[in-house]
Amino acid sequence: MAAEQAAVDPARSEWDVIVVGGAAAGENAAQYATQFSGLDAVIVEKELVGGECSYWACMPSKALLRPVELLSQARDLPGTKEIVGRHELDVAAVLARRDAVVKNLDDSSQVDWALGVGIDIVRGTARLAGVKTIVVTAPDGSERTLTARQAIVLDTGSSAAVPPVTGLAEAMPWTSRDVTNIHEIPRRVVLIGGGVVACESATWLRGLGVEHVTLVEGGPRLLGKLEPFAGEIVRQGFVDAGVAVHLGVHVESVSRDDVRDTGYGHVHGGEVSVTLADGTVIQADEVVVAAGRSPNSSGLGLESVGLSEGGYVEVDDHLGVVGVDGDWLYAIGDLTGRALLTHMGKYQARIAGEVISARAAGTPFDSGRFGRHTDVADHRKVPQVTFTDPEIGSVGLTEAEAREAGLDVETAEYDLAALAGTYVLRDNYVGRAKIVVDRSKDTLVGATFVGTGVAELNHSATMAVVGELPISALWHVVPSYPTVSEIWLRLLETLNNQRHQR
Ligand SMILES: Cc1cc2nc3c(=O)[nH]c(=O)nc-3n(C[C@H](O)[C@H](O)[C@H](O)COP(=O)(O)OP(=O)(O)OC[C@H]3O[C@@H](n4cnc5c(N)ncnc54)[C@H](O)[C@@H]3O)c2cc1C
Ligand SMILES: NC(=O)c1ccc[n+]([C@@H]2O[C@H](COP(=O)([O-])OP(=O)(O)OC[C@H]3O[C@@H](n4cnc5c(N)ncnc54)[C@H](O)[C@@H]3O)[C@@H](O)[C@H]2O)c1
Fold first, then answer.
1. Handedness of CA 172, 173, 175, 177 (dihedral sign)
2. Which ranges constitute the DSSP H helices of 376-482?
3. CA–CA separation, 357 vs 319, rounded Å?
4. Cα(358)–Cα(364) distance, rounded to whole angstroms?
5. Beta-strand (E) ranges in 266-306?
């Protein structure tokens, strides 16, 4: 912190680039705008430099999930299962490692990185106050006006949405911030939602010893944005692990008499009663709301530049904010609603940074097919790994999305358990894979893999989808034996067989 104070002159009010929100994407935007351009930049951050992902989302959740995954595999492999026996996780050690991963909520290393590459940091809450201008309210309440010579980038992210369920907000439910920064292990937990946050959270809560985990999803299946078989395999895994899953029913009301603000990850009071629309009443010690996200756009001063407050901020494919003239305002990350994933926010940041640098230098955009100044991947080419047990890798379109888009769709599916590469991984491998092909172009437009060890496979599918590799070329991309990647050969063989049978 001393270095930070020394580096930022409190009287300074002008930079080339101002980034509002210091998440990883914001850091990348500042870095890419400045690294070869001679421009300077400042990041304004109201909480911790590193953002939600580093302290309250991706990193702590993956730190909690890794031991759960490893124990599950060790229990399923002769040679290790005899050693592991009935042992459970060492909860204190898992939480301690999680604390180390989130650096005990200390952002000095990220601040040091920024200062080290010449990016300044200002602490406080920023709001737009007209063209190229923001006002920052410091933690002590003082205000400071900053102006940008070239550009302002908004990277304020999103927060857990709390749906308007009777009594829910009053019960002070856990959000993703509590469940990732869990300190007390409740005996009974109800999760509202069946998307990625709920499914990952249920996995580690059960692994950490929560006796009764109940998940309530209003839609007809878990992980509704993915191929249906993915959610079904995860649901079956939950049932086998003793997690109760309610599908197609909403939470109607929540009540808790004794509500206490005990801090993140501590139980927020006494028993909670959760009533579902079908009349089921579930008693729990904590309730977790995992029902989607809301963009952090309220109070951001968007109306000062002619935009409306509260929703996602629409951007064009150079990440410029739509509806604001002059090519000076950009938005990246969750705030844009394009793809609520860290890697996609960082990708948008790299593009926005280079767009700002090119515009400042007056150099033309790289306008080729894969030009560096245009967002390509957000259009039907987004990869994601869902770290459930088993894990899921997905990229691009599902079959339903491809059909909805009017593509000439062809699919192939294969049982991932039927490979030498997965047989050696564990005894009772469960998995499945599916590819979605655009027959008219003979290219892959989507892929989904479910099973142990598929996370790292996802990038190969992402390359095929983004690079629009012809299926004929994939035939010559030979997977090593025995690995999970053999699934590529089996899927291509399946496709080939289907084509010969037609
Ligand atoms: C439990 C959980 C697990 C997740 N796991 C993954 C995962 O494994 N992989 C993945 O890719 N994604 C994951 N995500 C999604 C990922 O966390 C988000 O997509 C990502 O954090 C969004 O980054 P962002 O840049 O949009 O902003 P955020 O990370 O939301 O950060 C925004 C920053 O802006 C600051 N800020 C906000 N308003 C202001 C203001 N007015 N002035 C100054 N500063 C401000 C905030 O303090 C914050 O630091 C997960 C999400 C959750 C909830
Ligand atoms: N591994 C990862 O990449 C990862 C991990 C966690 C989160 N994320 C990102 O974070 C974002 C947010 O995740 P999320 O799970 O909060 O949102 P989501 O939109 O994926 O899922 C929310 C779910 O809650 C359900 N729901 C909403 N209101 C409900 C109610 N009242 N009762 C019952 N169910 C209700 C919805 O039907 C939906 O299925 C995702 O878009 C995801 O991309 C990514």
1. positive
2. 399-404, 420-423, 458-466, 471-474
3. 13
4. 7
5. 272-276, 281-284, 286-289, 293-295
**Could you report the predicted ipTM of this complex, rounded to two decimals?**
0.98
Compute, in angstroms, the gap from residue 58 CA to the centroid of ligand 1.
Answer: 9
Mutate to test the pocket of ligand 1, among 135, 342, 382 (most ligand atoms within 8 A of CB): 342
> Tell me: domain 169-292, CATH 3.50.50.60, correct?
yes
pLDDT for res 151: 98
476 pLDDT exceeds 60? yes
For atom 28 of ligand 2, which residue has the closest CA? 291
Location of each CATH 3.30.390.30 domain in the chain: 390-501
Q: Quick one: DSSP state of residue 477?
A: S
Backbone phi and psi for residue 238, each to the nearest 5 degrees, phi listed first = -65, -45
pLDDT per residue as tens digits for the range 136-163: 999 999 999 999 999 999 999 999 999 9
Q: Taking a C-beta distance cutoff of 8 angstroms, is the pair 468, 443 a contact? A: yes
CATH of the domain spanning 390-501 = 3.30.390.30
Exposed/middle/buried for residue 432 (C-beta within 10 Å: 0-12, 13-18, 19+) = buried
pLDDT of residue 6 exceeding 90: no
Q: Give the number of the ligand closest to the Cα of residue 289.
A: 2
- Ligand at shortest distance from the CA of 292: 2
Tens of pLDDT, residue by residue over 282-298, are 999 999 999 999 999 99
Q: Tens digit of pLDDT for each residue in 74-123?
A: 999 999 999 999 899 999 999 999 999 999 999 999 999 999 999 999 99
Q: Can you give the pLDDT at residue 367?
A: 85
Residue nearest to atom 28 of ligand 1 (CA): 157
Which of 61, 158, 196 for mutating ligand 2's site (highest number of atoms within 8 Å of CB)?
196
Contact yes or no for 410/439 (Cβ under 8 A): yes
Indicate the CATH number of 14-50+107-159+295-361 among 3.90.105.10, 3.40.50.1860, 3.40.50.2300, 3.50.50.60: 3.50.50.60
| Whether the predicted pLDDT of 242 surpasses 80 | yes
H/E stretch holding 263 reads none
Looking up tokens 């692994």 gives 207
Residues in the chain: 502
- Given CA atoms 119, 124, 127, 129 in this order, what sign does their dihedral have? negative
Q: Tell me, what's the pLDDT at 1?
A: 47
Cβ atoms of 318 and 351 within 8 Å: the answer is: yes
